[in-house]
Amino acid sequence: MKNILVTGALGQIGSELVAKLRHIYGADRVVATDIRMSGHEVTRSGPFETLDVTDGKAMLEIAKRHQVDTIIHLAALLSATAEEKPLLAWNLNMGGLVNALEVARELGCQFFTPSSIGAFGPSTPKSHTPQDTIQRPTTMYGVNKVSGELLCDYYFHKYGLDTRGLRFPGLISYVTPPGGGTTDYAVEIYYDAVSKGRYTSFIGQGTYMDMMYMPDALDAIVQLMEADGSKLKHRNAFNVTAMSVDPEAIAASIRKVLPSFVLEYDVDPKRQAIAESWPDGIDATAAAEEWGFRAKYGLDAMTADMLSQLGAKER
Ligand code: AKB
């Protein structure tokens, strides 16, 4: 039976993942932790502990007290914030990860942490980006993600720790907004479409990036963690994606529900530069072959669900 510790539980992925894991494994078997102690549902629907992931002793104490056998480490700064505060990003993203891996090693836990399309850089093939390819990212976030992939591989080879991970694209959800990411425009566009009927994009026309709807991301985490480990060759950094889109493609999809939606541009050069250093679209064949990954939502299905969840009045 699983006893799961989740760090960064009040973040974009964490807040929905904790609810899903509590539903599957039982509310008292999922210990949610975050540096913040808000009145969020996650803090009330099962065990919750305040935790700064740079404090390895505190993490170990909580993990021991709750007798955890699985760690899902989500606490991290996203790409745009990491680029503004590179030293903080290094200390938090790498310090938190190595602490979580050490706790997992000491307690013999199964381990998951997300990587990202940010682990690729300008010299990576732009389209159908292969699973195994050049990784020379030019952002601090990307440097953290590549280092994290390697570190998780290291703990698997050196200590036999059951580490697993996914390279997530931009994740789109109507529950908890992301913060400080380059792909955040693809979430904001839906909120503004419903509340204002228009959106000003900080990412330019024709800039393609991978995206995925949150329910597919959550299913992918659970499916990978439940997969037969002996079948995994790429255990720490599976490419996963559901679509490759630019702002115009999302706008066109929104107009199928809200025909008068207006998209404008006011490109932010910093986030645009990050986006341009990432792939246009990655290849998720290894994930499909090794553990059966398949996204259920394409662009139009995601748009229809996002807009109806956010309360758009259809034409
Ligand atoms: C970001 O934009 O920083 C994240 C990511 C793709 O890792 N959403």
Description:
The chain has 315 residues and is of the alpha/beta class. It contains 11 helices and 16 strands. A 6-stranded parallel β-sheet has the order 3-2-1-4-5-8, with helices on both faces. The protein has a 3-stranded parallel β-sheet with strand order 6-9-13. Strand 1, helix 1 (12-25) and strand 2 (30-34) form a beta-alpha-beta unit. Helix 1 packs across helix 7, helix 2 (56-65) runs parallel beside helix 4 and helix 6 (185-195) runs parallel beside helix 8 (247-255). The longest helix has 22 residues, at 86-107. The termini are far apart. The model has no long low-confidence stretch (mean pLDDT 96). The structure holds 2-amino-3-ketobutyric acid.
Structural class: alpha/beta
| Whole-angstrom Rg | 19 Å
Ligand types: 2-amino-3-ketobutyric acid
Helix content: 40-55%
Strand order, main sheet: write it out: 3-2-1-4-5-8
Mean pLDDT: 96
Give the helix tally: 11
How many beta-strand runs? 16
Distance, first to last CA: 48 Å
Largest pleated sheet:
6 strands, parallel
Quote the beta fraction: 15-25%
- Low-pLDDT residue intervals, each spanning 5 or more residues: none
The coarse overall form would be: globular
- Run of helices and strands: EHEEHEHHEEEHEEEHEEHEEHEHEHH
